[in-house]
Amino acid sequence: MTTHGRDPDPDRSSAPGPSADPGPASAWQRVVCVVLGMCAGHVEALRTRLAACLALRSCDGSLREARRWARAHRVPWDPLEGGLHALGARCDCEALEVVERE
Fold first, then answer.
1. Which label site among 15, 60, 83, 84 has the fewest CB atoms less than 10 Å from its CB?
2. DSSP assignment of the chain, as one string?
3. Does residue 38 contact residue 84 with C-beta atoms inside 8 Å?
């Protein structure tokens, strides 16, 4: 069998699969991932949770929903809270603005 110049056994570990994290879309999203210490998939999950919760009720001025999300996903809270504060988020609605920003 001839491979016509193709590698007969390509390294498939570098090819993204359906479960691979697509990575952040913008430079800001890369900053958010680094500062929060989370992959793009976790940042998106946090964004989804915050958007859903804030659509149901207004922000109470705390990071209550972000903390609940972190607990449910076993993300250490202290580094996440510190990262959100470093990015200027002191409450759930500000955290949502940070993770939605392009």
1. 15
2. ---TTS-SS--GGGS--TTS----SSHHHHHHHHHHT--HHHHHHHHHHHHHHHHHS---SS-HHHHHHHHHTT--HHHHHHHHHHTT--SHHHHHHHHH--
3. no
Length of the chain equals: 102
- What are the tens digits of pLDDT across the range 46-95? 999 999 999 999 999 999 999 999 999 999 999 999 999 999 999 999 99
Helix 92-100 crosses helix 40-56 at what angle (to 10 degrees)?
130
**54 Cα distance to chain centroid:** 18
Task: Quote the CA–CA distance of 66 and 68 in Å, as a whole number.
Answer: 5
Query: Residue 77 and residue 13: Cα distance in Å, rounded?
Result: 32
DSSP state of 88: T
The model's pTM: 0.75
d(CA 53, CA 76): 21
